[in-house]
Structure formats: C-alpha cells, structure tokens
Amino acid sequence: MEQSQPAESRFPRLLASYVAAQLEGNLRGALRLLDEALEQGASVIELQCQVIQAAQRELGELWLHGRIGIAHEHRATAISQVALAHLFSRAEPAPARGVSVAVACIEGELHEMPARLLSDFLELAGFSVLHLGANLPTDSLVSLLEQEPPDVLALSMTMAFNVSVLRRTVAEVRARLGSGLPILVGGSALDELPGLVAELGVGSSGPTPAELESAVLRAVAQRPH
C-alpha cells in the first residue's frame, strides 16, 4: 500500500496536458492523450503511475493551496476514474496467481482513487481482487470477509483524522476473523503517522506496483498455516 511519494513522472508534458484536460472537464481529450501515449510505446502501468496517479497528486496540491475548488477536483477525479477503466480494458493481465485480495477504504474514508489504483495494479499482476470501494462500514466489511475470506486484506486511508477508525477496523477484523488474515494498510495519511504500521502489527509497501506485489506475496508467505 502506498506511503511515500512515487518518483516524479517521466512524462512531464503528457502529465501537464492530462491535468489541463481534467481541469477543463475534457474527458475525450484526456482519453485521447492516453491512447496516443500507448501508440507511442508507453505501457499501461507507466500511464497509471506516471500520469493518472501523478495527476491526482497534483490535483490534491492545487486544492490544498486553494487554486481549485472541491467541485473542480471532483470533476477531474471522475475523469481519472474513467481513464483508469479505459486503460484497464487495454491491458493484458498476468497469469492468475491463485491469491485473492480484498481492497477497501475504511469507514468514513471518501477518497476511493488510491484504492482503485491499488486494485487495478493487483488485478493486472494476476491477483484476484475484491474491490469494495469508499466509506465501507466496518460491520459490513467484516461480515463480507467472514462469508468470502480473502488471502489478504488491504485497507486504504487518505485522511489522517480517520486513524481511530483504522485502529478500530483492524481490531474488529482480528476479533472476528482471528489473527491469521494478513492486513496491509496504506494511503498518504501514513506519511503523517510514523510508527502506526508497527503499532498495529500490519504490513505496508512502497508506492510502486512491484513493491505492492512483493508486499502481498510476502504477506501470504507469512500467513500461519
């Protein structure tokens, strides 16, 4: 799960054009930019990470500094949601690994994009993914996990003020499912909360798809048998 910032985009001009299309509300223009990049040899993973993920980070900075409003940020993010689905449809997934991962934003966490990116990365890497979206009530999450237990649970938290909910979610999952289910946590909020991963006894990973893949495999390998 993402904590630190990924490397700066290797496609600065494409990134700038994509963000401009987002801020204009130009969905077709944004998709055309991605299609042109694919035709010129860029990979789906590169565009997911170096354009869409980087664009969302830039939008967050623009909002934080008052340069765009919430409505503009929402419109731009909606374009990235469509763009991710568009790229996903163009990608060839790796062979199935036989490992399932449930991905959810904790209760009260409304920022779904990081979890959506995570799910796409894992799905294309050959994992079976159960994507549960934003603001998932803890009771509903645990009930579903009891009915359809995954090999790994990944929880996303973008806003640091949700940390008490994260603590409660991890405790509730372990109380009802035991300690055998590996839990990964991530999101930009973890940068503000050093030591939280160790406190909760959960796993995490670096920001790249390769690091995420390694973290999931490591979690599965360490699961009690």
Task: Describe it.
The chain has 225 residues and is α/β, with parallel strands linked by helices. The protein has two domains: 12-90, Methionine synthase domain (Methyltransferase, Methionine Synthase (B12-binding Domains), Chain A, domain 1); 100-221, Cobalamin-binding domain (Rossmann fold), CATH 3.40.50.280. The protein has nine helices and four strands; from the N terminus they run ααααβαβαβαβαα. The protein has helices spanning 12-24, 27-39, 44-64, 70-90, 113-124, 138-147, 163-177, 196-200, 209-221, and strands spanning 100-105, 128-131, 152-156, 183-186. Strands 2-1-3-4 form a four-stranded parallel β-sheet, covered by helices on one side. Helix 3 runs antiparallel to helix 4. It is globular and about 50 Å long.
Largest sheet: 4 strands, parallel
Helix count, DSSP H or I runs of 4 or more residues: 9
Please give the CATH architecture of the largest domain: 3-Layer(aba) Sandwich
Q: Tell me, briefly, the overall form.
A: globular
Structural class of the helices, strands and pairings? alpha/beta
What name goes with the CATH superfamily of the largest domain? Cobalamin-binding domain
Strand order of the largest sheet: 2-1-3-4
The third-level CATH topology of the largest domain is Rossmann fold
